[in-house]
Amino acid sequence: MLDGEAVVDVSEYTSALKRWWPLIxxxxxxxxxxxxxxxxxxxxxxxxxxxxxxxxxxTQGDDxxxxxxxxxxxxxxxxxAGSQRVAERALALLDAADQLETSDLNSPEVEMxxxxxxxxTEVARDIVENITISIPADSQVLEITATAGTAxxxxxxxxxMAHAYLDFRRDEGLAGTELARQQLLEREQELIVELDTLxxxxxxxxxxxxxxxxxxxxxSKREELAGIGARLANISAISINAGEVLDDAxxxxxxxxxxxxxxxxxxxxxxxxxxxxxAFMLDRRDDRFRSVASELAQMNLSPxxxxxxxxxxxxxxxxxxxxxxxxxxxxxxxRVQGSLLFNLDQSDKTVVLVTGTNxxxxxxxxxxxxxxAAARAGRRTLLIGADLRRPSLHDRFGLENxxxxxxxxxxxxxxxxxxxxxxxxxxxxxxPAGSPVQQPxxxxxxxxxxxxxxxxxxxxxxxxxxAPPVLAVAxxxxxxxxCEGVVLVIEPGRSxxxxxxxxxxxxxxxxxxxxxTIVAESTPT
Length: 525
What we know:
Helix content: 40-55%
Largest sheet: 7 strands, parallel
Shape: flat
Order of helices and strands: HEHHHHEEHHEHHEHEHEHHHEHHEHEHE
Distance between the termini: 37 Å
Low-confidence stretches: 1-8, 59-70, 315-319
Number of strands: 11
Radius of gyration: 40 Å
CATH superfamily of the largest domain: P-loop containing nucleotide triphosphate hydrolases
CATH class of the largest domain: Alpha Beta
Structural class: alpha/beta
Mean pLDDT: 83
């Protein structure tokens, strides 16, 4: 949108519906059929949910103000709860409860028997595929949902997975503390042996310095031994708290899934939406201008005139595209430059940027011929080639690109050293792009560019800056914010409406003023 007005009005959408209604109808029918088939293929399934609170594994002596949320990674716990190992434990618990003819999965007898059972890993893998773990927002709760062919089986799976997960977490915590305790005990024995050896070495020492050194080592190891004792006491005080089942899984009262009518209705709606999407996509693919004047008016842009840009209309070679004086092409550019100069004179502006949407050739051609027309009209004109990435402005005049804008901005050449002139145009001075640079953006965003434009502004009636297309790189935006106005070159055969809208939006976003547009028409060579 530009200035609050849409680029395309509602009538274009309604016309798209009229053009593509058969496609929308076919897509709707296909969606209806597919929805009916899919809902018919939906098997009878039941879902049951068990809710588990995950608690941090902390010690009894920990700070009661400890942020326990840092102790539990719910994403990791969700992965654990839905893992193969937990499913195997759940299957073992169910088999043990079945053999003991009990439903209490927490009973010590069931857990002891489950530890001895070997389960079928394929069955456990099938269980995993039918388990879904979710985490309510801002909570440390896991909702374990089990899906099965019968209501009773779904309840058994959800409940057993919840208990198996807590068993797994508790066992892992106990195993971790036991490993730490064993490591400390081993180090304790090592220190006892080392202290015994030190004691003998101290007794056998012959000098005070030797005894003093050994004494320091003895004290250090005794402090380490005391620290190990404290750590062992802390480990002994650890209380493993894996969590608890907050809500047991219930036997579901009805089947899961959608009612039958939901399939056809959803399919119909989705098919219609898909058809609409494809229709609008196909319609919008033809985004070229259909009526340049009216569509530019909708975008609050008015063309200053129409000029040709095809190479075959110019007298010189294929690269040197400067219109002949008094030719139809020359007159077209003279009219456009007259309109441009009128707009600039009204607002006392001198420096204008010429850029396009996506075609650098047309932008360069228009900039070169605008500057030429102004010079022929007696205006002291400076033409600057600011396309530092693919410079071609010098080719339009048959000049060399040895020194230019890049060299001036880099401080390697003075402005006067970069100026060039053509014999037939005494009022025109040209500064080409200059030496190739690795990072043009650094020069175009430098303070030197602003100083350069301020320096040359006072010496000319018109300064035309040729820039790369807006949508290709950000160089035009960097230049536009320093120029006093921007002329946007539009090619109806190449520039789409969205291209123009995006280009204008990017320029205005950096504070550049689009003073007008020039419609460039390509002609055959």
